[in-house]
């Protein structure tokens, strides 16, 4: 299969000598490139003198160069044919919008200009109609999976969501919502943009919902600075690419370790999130749920909308328990002598009949059934407690294993159990859970890094999940019966803690005085790590 070497550049603004001089230098050092793709403003206020030499053939671009159209009224005159044309030898204007696919099979979608609310849009802009027509023409192609490259001048709005910082650039102000929608639909493997005089290479993002859709290729967004800028920001980007159509499907959908959620997918509306939880044995009737038996992401019929990436919920009052709850902190049923830390939204308590003396629970103060039901501020504090416990246990030469069983329980309990670092690795722990799950016909699947449980399970879905303090996670969608002590039994097994006699908490009950003493000891040791005491 052929590998193509491409260069992409930001706003040239007429500085063609600087641009092509740099291209020649790179080729002299790194060998030939096949093509130069220019986004942003190719022409600028001072273009005329340099451009005349290329237009007349006195000078020639060193490699085939493809450019986007005008971004302002002043430079419209450089583009005589709105549908695209050769501007000079080796310099081609792609056109207002479309798909360029040369003999290589590489598919390059492009959209010239800046976003306009007017219809029809000015000659230097695009409208919602332009974007809709471009999307329709490509999405109607049989077997469409995405494009190899997308070229736009403006940034997409919200591109920095879930990602590394963009510095002083605010895509909510300068970014285009229409381009966000276009990128979400076309799923480019590379998306180049410019105009903001900044270099930004976003972490790659995925184009599917984990465990609900068939895995797809990732997308990379790269914004490039202006040619020859005095700050020496990167304006030329070299990359190698094999056309999607020539790639092995397994290679195409490989997910890099630093992949993030898709920044353009919409979270569910608040009203859709707050349906009352179902009983553990109930099967939801009209939602999409990924069938874990079918890895290709086939979905059962639905009359609801597909769940997109899940941002933490906005503040809302937790539902009230239907009867006495052993874990709501305000409830008289709570065994307060086991409580070891109280935050604003969560608290820590030693487990009654714990597998070990430092087996601890993270619990919401209010009544929530599972992690996927939590409001954003509760999620934030759960994360703080996880970090504090990781630091605490690591100081004692241990790593924690956390699990949740959202099945036949009415109040969220995150069970946190420490395992000696020198006793087993994180791989040992994962293998033990997966092996014992297979013995019981339980399908436990690994969730990719940078995903969270709220992207996998919907409110009301019975599930079991395991999380290591490295962030690695395993997930099982419960569809029938499920062994209530499964998580604890795996950790108690000979392969891990070798405490099989303590697999059932009811056999581990201690006297109240002993429990209170264990809680005092934990509270004392945990104090230097307890952020709640510093609040």
Describe the structure.
This protein is an alpha/beta fold and 535 residues long. It has 2 domains: 4-253, Purple Acid Phosphatase, chain A, domain 2 (4-Layer Sandwich), CATH 3.60.21; 336-533, HIT-like (HIT family, subunit A, 2-Layer Sandwich). It is built from 11 helices and 23 strands. Helix 3 runs parallel beside helix 5 and helix 9 packs across helix 10 (486-492). It is elongated and about 95 Å long. The model is unreliable at 268-315 (pLDDT under 50). One of its GO terms (cellular component) is post-mRNA release spliceosomal complex. Residues 440-531 form the Cwf19-like protein C-terminal domain. Residues 263-273 have a biased composition (Basic and acidic residues). This is CWF19-like protein 1.
Helical percentage: 10-25%
Number of strands: 23
* SS content category: alpha/beta
Q: Major sheet, described briefly?
A: 8 strands, antiparallel
The total number of structural domains is: 2
Gross morphology: elongated
Q: Give the CATH superfamily of the largest domain.
A: Metallo-dependent phosphatases
CATH topology term of the largest domain: Purple Acid Phosphatase, chain A, domain 2
| Estimated radius of gyration | 28 Å
Number of helices: 11
Mean pLDDT across all residues, rounded? 86
If classified by CATH, what would the architecture of the largest domain be? 4-Layer Sandwich
Span between N and C termini? Answer: 59 Å
Task: Name the strands of the widest sheet in spatial order.
Answer: 16-17-18-20-19-22-23-21
CATH class of the largest domain: Alpha Beta
Assess the beta-strand content as a share of residues: 15-25%
- Ranges where pLDDT stays below 50 over 5 or more residues in a row are 268-315
Family: Belongs to the CWF19 family.
GO molecular function, one term: RNA lariat debranching enzyme activator activity
Protein name: CWF19-like protein 1
Pfam families: CwfJ_C_1 (PF04677), CwfJ_C_2 (PF04676)
């Amino acid at each position: 299969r052929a590998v193509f070497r491409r260069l992409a550049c930001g706003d040239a603004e007429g500085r063609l000598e600087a641009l092509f001089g740099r291209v020649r230098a790179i080729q002299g050092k790194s060998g030939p490139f096949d093509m130069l793709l220019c986004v942003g403003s190719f022409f600028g206020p001072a273009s005329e003198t340099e451009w005349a030499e290329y237009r007349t053939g006195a000078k020639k671009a060193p490699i085939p160069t493809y450019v986007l159209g005008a971004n302002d009224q002043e430079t419209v005159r450089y583009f005589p044919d709105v549908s695209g044309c050769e501007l000079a030898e080796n310099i081609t204007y792609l056109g207002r919008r479309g798909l360029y696919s040369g003999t290589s099979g590489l598919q390059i979608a492009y959209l010239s200009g800046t976003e306009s609310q007017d219809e029809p849009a000015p000659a230097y802009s695009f409208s919602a109609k332009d974007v809709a027509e471009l999307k329709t023409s490509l999405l109607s192609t049989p077997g469409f999976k995405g494009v190899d490259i997308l070229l736009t001048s403006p940034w997409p709005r919200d591109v920095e969501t879930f990602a590394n910082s963009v510095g002083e650039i605010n895509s909510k102000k300068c970014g285009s919502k229409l381009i966000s929608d276009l990128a979400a639909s076309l799923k480019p493997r590379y998306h180049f943009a410019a105009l903001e005089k900044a270099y930004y290479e976003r972490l790659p993002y995925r184009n599917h919902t984990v465990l609900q859709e068939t895995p797809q290729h990732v997308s990379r967004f790269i914004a490039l600075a202006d040619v020859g800028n005095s700050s020496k920001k990167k304006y030329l980007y070299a990359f190698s690419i094999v056309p999607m159509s020539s790639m092995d499907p397994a290679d195409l959908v490989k997910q890099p370790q630093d992949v993030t959620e898709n920044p353009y997918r919409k979270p569910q509306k608040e009203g859709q999130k707050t349906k009352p939880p179902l009983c553990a044995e109930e099967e939801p009737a009209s939602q999409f749920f990924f069938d874990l038996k079918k890895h290709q992401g086939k979905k059962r019929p639905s009359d609801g909308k597909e769940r997109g990436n899940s941002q933490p919920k906005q503040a809302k009052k937790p539902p009230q328990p239907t009867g006495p709850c052993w874990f709501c902190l305000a409830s008289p049923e709570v065994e307060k002598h086991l409580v070891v830390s109280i935050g604003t939204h969560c608290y820590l308590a030693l487990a009654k009949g714990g597998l070990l003396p430092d087996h601890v629970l993270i619990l919401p103060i209010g009544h929530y059934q599972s992690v996927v039901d939590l409001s954003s501020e509760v999620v934030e504090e759960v994360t703080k407690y996880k970090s504090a416990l990781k630091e605490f246990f690591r100081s004692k030469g241990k790593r924690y294993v956390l699990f949740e069983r959202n099945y036949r329980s009415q109040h969220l309990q995150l069970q946190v159990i420490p395992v000696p670092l020198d006793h087993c690795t994180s791989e040992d722990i994962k293998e033990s859970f997966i092996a014992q799950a297979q013995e019981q016909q339980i399908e436990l699947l690994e969730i990719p890094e940078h995903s969270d449980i709220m992207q996998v399970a919907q409110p009301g879905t019975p599930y079991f999940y395991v999380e290591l303090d490295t962030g690695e996670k395993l997930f099982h969608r419960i569809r029938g019966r499920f062994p209530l002590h499964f998580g604890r039994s795996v950790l108690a097994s000979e392969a891990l803690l070798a405490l099989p006699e303590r697999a059932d908490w009811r056999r581990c009950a201690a006297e109240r005085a002993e429990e209170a003493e264990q809680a005092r000891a934990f509270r004392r040791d945990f104090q230097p790590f307890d952020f709640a005491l510093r609040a």
